[in-house]
Write a structure and sequence with these properties.
Blueprint: H1 2-19, H2 24-48
Helix pairs in contact: 1-2
């Protein structure tokens, strides 16, 4: 989950640099990617306890 989230955020960042502006798709990728990354991080932390 963390890898998927990080990849989505990275693609959003690269797309924004190449296009010079962020659209709705990139914003959605950023929000969903960040959410998935932090959920994966939370689940990983809970499983180690």
């Amino acid at each position: 989950m963390q890898l998927f989230g990080l990849t989505a955020v990275g693609l959003c960042f690269i797309s924004g640099i190449l296009q010079g502006d962020y659209g709705r798709l990139e914003l959605l990728q950023l929000v969903v990617g960040s959410f998935v990354f932090y959920i994966g991080n939370y689940l990983k932390g809970r499983s180690q306890n």
